[in-house]
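Input sequence (429 aa), recorded before submission:
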Amino acid sequence: MGFRSIALPLLAMLLLDSSLIAQGFRVNLIHPAKEAMRRKGVKRSEAIRALVAKSHARVRWMAARANSSSWSSMAGTTDVESPLHPDGGGYVMDISVGTPGKRFRAIADTGSDLVWVQSEPCTGCSGGTIFDPRQSSTFREMDCSSQLCAELPGSCEPGSSTCSYSYEYGSGETEGEFARDTISLGTTSDGSQKFPSFAVGCGMVNSGFDGVDGLVGLGQGPVSLTSQLSAAIDSKFSYCLVDINSQSESSPLLFGPSAALHGTGIQSTKITPPSDTYPTYYLLTVNGIAVAGQTMGSPGTTIIDSGTTLTYVPSGVYGRVLSRMESMVTLPRVDGSSMGLDLCYDRSSNRNYKFPALTIRLAGATMTPPSSNYFLVVDDSGDTVCLAMGSASGLPVSIIGNVMQQGYHILYDRGSSELSFVQAKCESL
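Predicted structure, token format:
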């Protein structure tokens, strides 16, 4: 969820129990917008307006930090998983922290690194589950002199020996204490796998995270879940995002050998290694984006991000995509400006209307998503759809958001710096 502005040394290797080798994890991803609609009776148009605003805010925040620096990574093999559910424009997973363990619903985010849960004493918690370090027998404070502490912004208060942090996102922030405790994730055999001495944030002052208990950073920086557990999960994880408007479906977030893709049509593209400029993000090369076979331009370096809702491309490319869609789509136009969207249509007269094909040409691979991945339903009736894209103005990279990723099983192999994907029925994995 953001560019960092600090120089970070290489993380010391996290020691993991050798019994984790050759096992497997599974985590289920959950969708926030739908959960909010169920809890509060919110109209879909209002929920979409809120998630689009968050998506735009995230991109503005990324743009403001686009010239910053730096993170790195650290180093078994285990199969774990967690269910992913759509929620508020992102996807939420389950994670347990402490001994005895308490379960938290946390946003799964490939665009940030810190793993944190809301904690006592809390002045900015949004209900739900709150972690109390005093109740965990495995909780240990982290000293300011720790190398891991130095990886986070605001890592030490003057005169204090306890590691603290202040971490910002596009539409929120968290402040608290950086510590160590045992975390647990589900396994592919319906069990639970514990990881002791995991570096986790205890968020005591949080904003912008209503309806969830925290956030799990899956980025390439050293404090992320995937970096801290890299030896145990063979540096691999995968997910398959169900429809963002689904009310009940979930899909697994998989780690280790179980993250492998299956079936025909698997494609792969290289992930650019992390750098001082882009230490956290998974960067791909997009050579072109086409509408109905006609190339609109090259987005170039592109982040693939589970925490951004929309897809953003350079303003010139975006303008040509808009013009091409406008010239080809024959449905009645609808004003989507109140939701922050530029191109909306009323499809009530033809729910099966075939929109122009959109193609994303990656280096060595091609993504041809269904129109539901780029025309998003924005009202409860299902009559109004809007182009789920925007201009990456001010940002030196493009972004493939989570709506565009729906219905693809996507594997991140950090060991080989490769991202692979295949279309799949996510709810059936």
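Checked by second reader. Residues 220 and 280 are 5 Å apart (CA to CA).
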